[in-house]
Amino acid sequence: MSLWVDKYRPRTLDALHYHKELSERLASLAASGDFPHMLFYGPSGGGKKTRIACTLRELFGPGVEKLKIDQRVFETPSKRKLDVNIVQSNFHIEITPSDVGIYDRVVIQEILKEIAQTQQVDLSAKQRFKVVIINEADSLSRDAQAALRRTMEKYMSNMRIILCANSTSKLIAPIKSRCLLMRVAAPSEVEMEAALRHVAKEEKFDLPDNACEEIIKDSGGNLRKALLVLEALKMQSFTRFISNINIAKPDWESYCGKVAELIIQKQTPDQLYELLSHCIPPTVVLKTIADRVVDMVDESLKGDIMHWAAFYEVRMRIGSKKIFHLEAWVIKVMSLQKHMYYGVDLTGVGFETVANVQQFIMEVLDGGIVQIVGGAICGRNMKGRFVAEL
């Protein structure tokens, strides 16, 4: 028994419920015989992978759905073994190189070289090239992206690459210039309602209007999440779908709310490390906590808090130690709070010397040790370590 999100996933471009113009464009490209490298980008749950699968079916026919999963072992120059799961058919291969972290360049080079140097063996195939789908392309390291750029130029004749990403901001310009960009926007509320009612009709139950509105509001444009919530609520009600529903939040999301309360009320992110230790992506942690903090602070602080959240998110992408940038944003928020309530000037005018800055941070931390490490002021008290830039 499969989940509804997989059971009712459209198999062809004609069956897609929204972005009809995009579906027509993809069908036209698939029929043209001159299929380019492509980059699908947009928010999670918008339908990127579904459209990629439908485009592949349009290119190669139903045989592309006969999938097998292999586990391949790659070896780094330092003789380290890397295990990577690969989904493939006779016509395409799907990989997620970011699973191996900083060694993604090795996976990219080995697989693409292997695919590019082999010809299409299925004589009944509509196309003479194979397709490589790279998931989470925006998580690729710069080295992997450079390797991908060279391969895209060299093996265009018998290989096409389809990249799938949430954002294009982390991709280097040469890769974007070699791909046809396809933005898959999040569905509107009307389109989401149509998709939910289609599933409800297929499952033979009535979906109350207010329940549908609550699910759409909670999902925030993520159709995958909306379908999962719909199925969970239907399983809870068993016989019929009740109109008064209570959508439970994921544990990590509730935890982010508690951390936000600690930052504002107790001036400490006591449980910040717990979220990262449970493999919640740092950028998701930052975004979720920032949303919660903004709901709790004065109107005059909201713009500054979101500005610094965006600033440290960029720093997080560039740097390697994510926790440092999360801590830096937390202490920035706490400092903004102090500035508003106590009238402390944080622009540097009130701090004539480094000693003054250290003294201020000691006051923020209620004592503890404050020292300068690598151009940043580090403070430590009984409840944790905080980092603030000079």
TrEMBL record:
Transmembrane segments: none
InterPro entries the record matches: AAA+_ATPase, DNA_pol3_clamp-load_cplx_C, DNA_Rep/Repair_Clamp_Loader, P-loop_NTPase
Molecular function in Gene Ontology: DNA binding; DNA clamp loader activity
GO cellular component terms attached to this protein's record: Ctf18 RFC-like complex; DNA replication factor C complex; Elg1 RFC-like complex; Rad17 RFC-like complex
GO terms for biological process, alphabetical: DNA repair; DNA strand elongation involved in DNA replication
Pfam families reported for this sequence: DNA_pol3_delta2 (PF13177), RCF1-5-like_lid (PF21960), RFC_C (PF22534)
SUPFAM superfamilies documented for this protein: P-loop containing nucleoside triphosphate hydrolases (SSF52540), post-AAA+ oligomerization domain-like (SSF48019)
UniProt keyword terms in alphabetical order: DNA replication
UniProt key word Mitochondrion: no
Positions of the AAA+ ATPase domain: 34-196
PANTHER family for the chain: REPLICATION FACTOR C / DNA POLYMERASE III GAMMA-TAU SUBUNIT, REPLICATION FACTOR C SUBUNIT 3
Full protein name: AAA+ ATPase domain-containing protein
Organism: Hydnum rufescens UP504
Lineage of producing organism: Eukaryota, Fungi, Dikarya, Basidiomycota, Agaricomycotina
